[in-house]
Design goal:
Length: 200
């Protein structure tokens, strides 16, 4: 019935900056309240209600697909973190960079330092970038399935480790899960990709 969705990253970013995510979420609520709306009706409503955002059906479909994919990705992330939390001795950690490392490397090089370090620890992990609230200082949060040796990181900056006790209650484990999950998807991560270990 509809033409194939063409994905244009530049147009998608433009739509997001115009408020398309809120518009599509609002449209979902409208459809939920009125279940007799067809897919075509839904697209027409989007074009009529938000002409300043959507130029055509493809715009609406592209944003819907983006939201669906983001939801699936977030669900996979949550499942992976839950699996790490159920390991024998999981830890939550924060990797920070020294001034020297920050000044002498690019963001991509620092990301590579994090990946190499975590790989060298021979563990399963999930890590993500974050930025400090006050000074926007770049750092990484991670969760790993076992204790790691901090020595390999000390040339790059500081490492803070928090052991997740195996006798933690379900509520406490849920807090660790939410802490990393929320760090991974919050706005200050500036849509950076999550770092995963290959083994898990």
């Amino acid at each position: 019935m509809f033409q194939k969705i063409t994905h244009d990253a530049k147009r998608l970013n433009e739509l997001i900056s115009l408020g398309a995510l809120d518009a599509v979420n609002c449209l979902k609520k409208l459809v939920y309240q009125n279940t007799i709306l067809s897919d075509y009706d839904r697209l027409v409503i989007a074009l009529e209600k938000w002409p300043e955002i959507f130029l055509d059906f493809n715009d609406v479909l592209m944003v819907q697909r983006y939201l669906e994919n983001r939801h699936k990705r977030n669900k996979r992330l949550r499942n992976r973190i839950e699996k790490l939390l159920c390991s024998d001795s999981p830890i939550f950690g924060t990797l920070t960079f020294s001034d020297k490392t920050l000044n002498s490397t690019t963001q991509e090089q620092r990301r590579l330092l994090v990946v190499r370090y975590l790989k060298s620890c021979n563990c399963s992990y999930v890590a993500n970038i974050d930025y400090g609230k006050r000074n926007e200082r770049e750092h990484y949060h991670f969760i790993a399935d076992k204790r790691i040796d901090p020595k390999g990181w000390l040339n790059n900056g500081a490492l803070k480790l928090l052991k997740i006790k195996s006798n933690s209650s379900a509520l406490r484990l849920a807090r660790y899960l939410n802490k990393l999950y929320n760090h991974a998807i919050k706005d200050t991560t500036k849509n950076q990709k999550i770092i995963y270990s290959r083994k898990s």
